[in-house]
Here is the input.
Amino acid sequence: MMLPIDIRPDKLSEEMLDFSRKLGQGMENLLNAERIDTGVTPREVVYQEDKLTLYRYQAPEGVKRNPVPLLIVYALVNRPYMTDIQEDRSTIKGLLATGQDVYLIDWGYPDHADRALTIDDYLNGYLDNCIDFIRESHGVDAINILGICQGGAFSLCYTAMHPEKVKNLVTMVTPVDFQTPDNLLSAWVQHMDVDLAVDTMGNIPGEILNWTFLSLKPFSLTGQKYVNMVDVLDDPDKIKNFLRMEKWIFDSPDQAGETFRQFIKDFYQKNALINGGLVIGDREVSLTHIGCPLLNIYALQDHLVPPDASRALAGRTGSKDYTELAFPGGHIGIYVSGKAQKEVTPAIGKWLNERS
Amino acid sequence: MTEDWLSLQQKYWEQWTDMSRKALGAQAPATNPWENAMDQWWKAFAPASPDLSRTFMERMMEQGKMFFRMADTFTHNLPQFGGTTTDGWSSLSKTLNDMQQAFSGGQEQGDQALHKMMAFWEMPYDNWQRMMSSLSPIPGDLLRNMPHAPAGTMDKVLSAPGLGYTREEQSQYQDLIRRSLDYQKALQEYLSFFSGMGMKSIQRMRATLERMQASDKVIDSARGLYDTWVGCCEDVYAEDVQSAEYARIHGQLVNAQMALKQRMSIMVDESLGAMNMPTRNELRTLQDRVQQVRRENKALRKEMHSLHLQVAALSGQEPAASPGLRPALAQSAPAPVKRTVVRKKPVTPTPADQ
Here is the structure.
């Protein structure tokens, strides 16, 4: 029987030399790396309010346009350029190719002056204003919405409060049941005194969110991935892509204190989106008020929003047209993987075109 | 065997020095030539690199050293040039036992490499420390190594009532110390939980190696060994942090840190007030009031716009522009960015709309 470890010294020496050589070459490539760009598809600013910016993306020529515009509602945590991170990995580019007229909300970076913004301000203020702007611009009563992650949960709430303004709703990696047993984030915030945190910090710093996300897989995310990167250091394009992703991971806006307070208490601690009792502004939010067609997309290896957290949407709305799409990948892979470009984005476009 | 090992390391050092063509290796390194070689090389390159690249490379260097250190630790006692499987297992077993001892602090004079390797389990704490440092003017975590005072004595001191003119101030300092101690206690519990996970990860590694041997699988590279170790650590971590106990410890740590920070903020605010400077508390009151006024103002504007549309529809006229609307802009280039002003630009048709 052989020993399970058989690393010969000469082979180890060779491995070290190889590692060092790659680091040396990589250093040169890193020094030559250009500025990291974020967002690749041409777009224009069409509406602004406070720190919010609404973009409309330039459609490719020769593609028949869906007459109902599509608004992407991204999460408040992290930045929305994930949906358009690089030329060959862009959800937005894929949606444009299917004929969608794509708009995207960039919520901006809240500072202390935005501490008192509530979920009501975000949804019944900013989001509603963007949707009214698009409706009026296109002369339509209702538009399509694609909500991503926390933005998906917000889109559900918005649709429940304003059903007449939403024609079709797509949710991607969206938590609905915030207390599934495999939801680590949820387990960790159950004992957190969110009032104390918000009262102390005002806004919740992005660094706290970074720490929380890295804590989900600390050894892989803060150690192993850098070792794996050594293998591709000789490829300037791959370095650039890695650095772009690295920038996105750590580019976490602070969270407006009052919004964070309600989000953690009502969504995570009370699970009010499915248990009931969720009140935003002066409106009670009930998923049963959602009657439009729904496409719910989740990732099977999602460690941030477990599949069961998303699947909980089934049967909880008033929609008679509910479809699910399971993607064999993770929370980020669903936007940036090659597989997602081939499967997820075309599926969204097809589903929307059939219903618009 | 050990001599062969050292001569290979020396050979590596020489090859490396030659490859990098830097006059860095005039003197042979005294201990651990591999790590020294990497360090020397990095010292030469680091100052020239931009910040982002430097951080990135440092992380790779750190992890690179980690996995070669592991390979070194696991293999240098193995009877590779002769010896039996039983000898090999007892050597592996000894390494795993030493790791456990290093972790529990029982190997005071032990192998430095083992200590450094087990520092791998400090990574989550290191992340916490970095995060807290970014939120504090004081770098690092001063309270981690603060000497423990006997709980009873401290409680007595802290519960003694303040007297006289500075009564309130005394009470605030007492509260500050109390919260510091609470945080220190929470941190110790957090670290102790991680220490437990570290011990389990070694057991997991042992079980993994046994399984591999039973199925005739072999790790033949430093990278393979490192990946196996990361896998064991990540598995143990994933199981344990899902427990109710960890959720409690995690919550306690965050809450204790916030409670401490809150007390410090209150004291800073009071000092600012004493200097006739605006305080955070005052600013927050103003922020709340401003936000409420803006909320009402926006709602009124929206309502007015809606009424305009209704009137226009009833009278069959074009709707008048609302105060928040701006006439169409002809150009397709992005509009200049302005903050705090609601501005609307109707969408211009593109060829694809036709």
